[in-house]
């Protein structure tokens, strides 16, 4: 049977269209905060490659964008330039800033049908920074809390029980005094304790433990000028400026380096430092929950997955598929094992991979158990500006340029001025 040219053309076009539909691929851009040469970048490359292999109709391109702040800036700039990332891993506390700029999709629109109870297995402490007024705006992924690291060899050296780390502020101070080493001129050669004084994260644990708080759930009210916050800051200044068992200024990296080098006997640091300490320490070390005061409490930290507005509908669905896949128990466990971050969902600890890992490295279970007292991380509208003002105040107090009472009073006034436009 001969086909006419028109008939042939119709059939040919139909075949091409069907083939194009069958093999069409939705391309996603995923902004991720890590240095390109870092171990996390290598692991994320592997994770994304596995997703792409399992989903031939979706192709995810991981775009490494520096640290969290740099990634946030690049994502915002791209979105405001009408070229947003489809998915971005940004700080959980960026939620208010992203909402104020109307840049992110709410996740509830995707959590229907078989996904209606999607967040049920997630730890409640991690979800607190994901929701506002009952609406879910992001999904926890790379999350952490501060935990207590200590050098067991140093404990033995000064007569402390290496299996009984400090459980209260008073015990922490006494241990730090015993562990601090000074030379004949009074210069410290080994710090008894180091906290992350060049950031505003771990001080939140002290505030919570003193019975205080720093913000309301909607990020419009601050509570810095209170006796509880003053008590927390006073404990820091007493350890640095009176007892001199803790340095005034330390970053996360500097504290970790001091600890593994034996230049500090105890430290507060992120659970995300577990892998580094495990691979770098040449001594017997321990990990424990943070010592407490009025109550046990720690802030959460780390990053959540956001889906951006301004992308095609098919990209939104593909982005949700990617977010769901990253959040699977097996992938949450895989990320934790490879990075030291805490699995964000309870059933990840039931995977064979994490069970086996925990047998050889039980400290991951310490981080898990501390989640029972995990609380919302400090988050405000204009959050980066408020964090900067807060950090400047803390450092001025530690450097004795201002008193605790005057510093916190001024901090409260400045923060309230920043928040004034957001009050209903």
List the helices and strands and how they pair.
Blueprint: H1 5-22, E1 26-32, H2 39-54, E2 58-64, H3 68-80, E3 87-91, H4 95-100, H5 124-127, E4 131-132, E5 135-136, E6 139-144, E7 146-151, H6 152-157, H7 169-179, E8 181-182, E9 188-190, H8 202-209, H9 227-242, H10 252-260, E10 266-270, H11 274-280, E11 285-288, E12 298-299, E13 301-307, H12 313-326, H13 329-339, H14 352-360, H15 363-370, E14 374-375, H16 383-398, H17 404-419
Parallel strand pairs: 1-2, 1-3, 12-14
Antiparallel strand pairs: 3-13, 4-5, 6-13, 7-10, 7-11, 8-9
Helix pairs in contact: 2-13, 8-9, 16-17
What do you see in this structure?
By secondary structure, this protein is α/β, with parallel strands linked by helices. It has 17 helices and 14 strands. The protein folds into two domains: 26-144 and 301-375, Periplasmic binding protein-like II (D-Maltodextrin-Binding Protein, domain 2, 3-Layer(aba) Sandwich); 146-298 and 382-422, Periplasmic binding protein-like II (D-Maltodextrin-Binding Protein, domain 2, 3-Layer(aba) Sandwich). The protein has helices at 5-22, 39-54, 68-80, 95-100, 124-127, 152-157, 169-179, 202-209, 227-242, 252-260, 274-280, 313-326, 329-339, 352-360, 363-370, 383-398, 404-419, and strands at 26-32, 58-64, 87-91, 131-132, 135-136, 139-144, 146-151, 181-182, 188-190, 266-270, 285-288, 298-299, 301-307, 374-375. The strands form five sheets. The protein has a five-stranded mixed β-sheet. α2 packs antiparallel against α13.
């Amino acid at each position: 049977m001969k086909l006419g040219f028109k008939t042939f053309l119709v059939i040919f076009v139909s075949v091409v269209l069907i083939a194009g539909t069958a093999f069409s691929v939705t391309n996603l851009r995923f902004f991720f905060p890590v240095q390109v040469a870092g171990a996390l970048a290598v692991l994320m490359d592997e994770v994304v490659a596995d997703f792409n292999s399992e989903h031939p109709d979706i192709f995810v391109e991981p775009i490494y964008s520096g640290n969290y702040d740099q990634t946030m800036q690049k994502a915002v700039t791209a979105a405001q330039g009408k070229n947003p990332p489809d998915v971005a891993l940004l700080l959980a506390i960026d939620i208010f800033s992203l909402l104020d700029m109307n840049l992110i999709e709410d996740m509830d629109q995707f959590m229907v049908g078989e996904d209606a109870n999607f967040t049920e297995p997630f730890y409640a402490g991690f979800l607190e920074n994901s929701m506002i007024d009952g609406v879910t705006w992001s999904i926890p992924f790379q999350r952490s809390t501060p935990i207590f690291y200590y050098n067991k060899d140093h404990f033995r050296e000064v007569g402390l029980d290496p299996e009984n780390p400090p459980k209260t502020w008073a015990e922490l101070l006494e241990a730090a005094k015993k562990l601090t080493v000074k030379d004949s001129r009074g210069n410290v050669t080994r710090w008894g304790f180091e906290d992350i004084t060049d950031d505003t994260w771990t001080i939140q644990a002290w505030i919570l433990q003193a019975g205080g708080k720093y913000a309301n759930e909607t990020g419009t009210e601050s509570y810095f000028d209170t006796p509880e916050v003053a008590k927390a800051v006073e404990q820091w200044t007493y350890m640095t400026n009176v007892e001199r068992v803790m340095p005034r200024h330390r970053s996360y990296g500097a504290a970790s380096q001091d600890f593994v080098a034996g230049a500090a006997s105890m430290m507060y640091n992120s659970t995300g430092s577990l892998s580094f300490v495990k691979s770098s320490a040449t001594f017997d070390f321990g990990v424990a929950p943070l010592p407490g005061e009025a109550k046990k409490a720690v802030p959460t930290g780390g990053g959540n997955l956001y889906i951006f507005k301004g992308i095609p509908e098919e990209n939104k669905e593909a982005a949700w598929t990617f977010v769901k896949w990253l959040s699977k128990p097996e992938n949450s466990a895989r990320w934790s094992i490879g990075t030291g971050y805490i699995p964000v969902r309870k059933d990840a600890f039931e995977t064979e991979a994490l069970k086996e890992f925990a047998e050889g490295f039980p400290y991951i279970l310490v981080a898990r158990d501390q989640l029972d007292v995990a609380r919302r991380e400090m988050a405000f509208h204009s959050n980066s500006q408020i964090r900067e003002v807060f950090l400047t105040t803390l450092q001025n107090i530690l450097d004795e340029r201002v008193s605790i009472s005057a510093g916190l009073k001024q901090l409260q006034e400045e923060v309230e001025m920043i928040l004034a436009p957001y009050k209903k």
